[in-house]
# Entry
Amino acid sequence: MGPPQHQQQSYSNVVKPKQDVAVHRTKVILLGTRRSGKTSILQVLFKNLPPKQTFYLEPTMRVTKHAFDTVIPLEIWDCPGNITVDTLEAPLSDFSSIVFVIDIRDLYQQPVAKLVEFIVAACQVNRNINLEVFVHKAEKLQEDDKIENFRQIHERVMDRLADESPEYEQVPLNFHLTSVYDHSLQEAFSRVVHKLIDSLPYLEDLLNVFCSNTSSPKAFLFDTTSKLYVATDASPVDQATHNLCCDYLQMLNSFGPLYKSNASPDPRSGVFSSVPGAPPHPNTPPTPAESLDYLSSNLDPPPSASAKPLFYPSASTSLSPSHPGTTLTYHLVTPHLALLALLPTTVYEIRRGLVEWNVVWFREGVGEIWEVEKERSEGELA
Amino acid sequence: MLILCRLHLDVGVLWLSWQKRLFWCSSLLHTNWLRTSHLDPPPYLKCFRVSTSTIASCPISDLAHLHSNMKKKVLLMGASGSGKTSMRSMIFSNNPASLTSRLGATIDVEQNHVRFLGDLILNLWDCGGQDAFMDSYLSIQRPTIFSHVGVMIYVFDVESREMAKDLEYYRDCLDGLSQFSKEANVFLLVHKMDLVRDGERSAVFQRKVVELEKASGDFPVKVQGTSIYDETLYKAWSSIVNTLIPNAQNLSRHLQIFAEACSATEVILFERATFLVIATSSSNASDPVTAHSLDSKRYERTSELIKAFKQSCSRLREEFHSLEMELAEFTAVLDEMTKNTYVLVVVHNPVVETAAIKMNIRMARWKFEELQGDSLVS
# Structure
């Protein structure tokens, strides 16, 4: 799948990549015995590595830090298999989450002992740390064995923790069954990220309001590059729907560069900023603030600090032509976040304008939350 | 299923060795037919399991009427395990590559009628590649197999250990073709290219091309490297299918007119079920596509992407219907054109709306229905 850098490009005149500005990043650490799949997880999620290629990854020899920006900036530490609490170069209290990766086929003694060692150490310094266990490489086993091994690993960890001290029995530990070959990894990691976003309830509220006003049964706010969902509405996440949304996002990400014109750099910016009198795009939000921006951009070069992009990529696909069909919509709301919603086809076809109007308000809301989060992460460092 | 295969084998052996028992043999076949109706074929192979022996028993003259412009016979041949059935199940039955490992060996010939583009029917003969079958194709069944062939696709495993033997059978098949259907097109697929390391791929392929062209003598052949794990499979099959569509140029010319009407950079017509490319609006060099210098792999990558998305839709018991995109780079609409084609309109002019493109597609629909009817009758 091609590197989906197009979203960034379309915003290049609006959002400058702020590499020079240091921000406070929420830290997540990936632990596990060697060859359990830590680096594979990172590469598949954030570097678009095809899952089949993970086989050829070199073992990690030293701690590597990956920066990842979604609603909040994250820093993910990938550790070599032999690391211990003492050899780690930062105190465990620095981390907000510990993700422990266990190969589902592994002899359970060693990884479990290591996991328990880290849990005990982490709980001593920070009782509120999020502890996540990825029982990884689920694709290697048949369905029944998979569930059985997952249950066994869960049981062993809990037993060992109880042996250490009865107080650890109450430690909230989340287990996820994951595999790089399907979207279970994306779903599990999304849940890890959810716990780190303080503004999650507000995003969820926005999605709930959107869903109820647009008669949408399900809506996700996705991070476009990693295909993690940052938030979703209150209805339960159905795995099949989540898979479909991930596949849809992946298809759109691959389509972008496929028909990209290599001759003219950015057709949208060419028309909308330089040609006076061009009709406003219907996706252009007709809110007063925006139309003012639009007018001013026609008269003189737009004030780059406050201008909003005049074009937001969107897409829709209708499924099953019969009534009542479903339409899956995609609307980019910030440079990295996209709203994916399932809508009844009748609603989308007849009241498309209203749907888009709702998207505009949703976008405004997410934009504000995003601004606040950005200010905070930059402010915290200062 | 196993019992069924055994029976087939028995039939073959009896046929070859024991002419006297012919009558008994055909009665066995009869029981066989009943069995097939009892045993449902697996859903991913919605095909018609026919033993060639049954076809051999009906005179050639009867077969002649089957061969018309509408019905194109496609022979799929190659050594056992080279990937013929895998390919077929991916292209025509919409199976993902990961499921092809479940396919069993093909026994004798699996004949498959694929309705491609409405009235054009591909009569696909997937010929089992084990030596015993190959010998029988080249001897007793020779007229049955090699007459009225539109296209022969010969599949070579890139990592084959018995290349000399494969080539020998291949030459024999070419002989058969030149004897019974001289005008047939021959496509050679060097398959399983994914097994070769990335860097060496083109060198290995070039070596194979030289070897195969030498083996083909003066028979004009086209060699292509394929793999079920990437878009090369769609590229190869699109070019194969293109040779079977009469008047593809005519379609392409009308697509050009349509593209102009939509201010589109490019318009691509796909077959509905297989999503293989039938025609595109850019046939000559002086069109707007060259000005935009689009990705050269875009056709087959589109087929691959849409097929993959269709699969994920079917997992949710949904059916893919249409797609419209207004991305940063371009605007595009993928929608039904006629009852068995889909059209992708790619526009780089940002002023053009998807609704306008959809309207144009709706207006052009009857014209293309008519055109398609025409091109098939002629």
Q: What stands out?
A: Chain A touches chain B through 47 residues (CB under 8 Å). Confidence is low (pLDDT under 50) at residues 1-20, 270-306 of chain A. Residues 318 and 327 of chain A are 4 Å apart (CA to CA). The two ends of chain A are 39 Å apart (CA to CA).
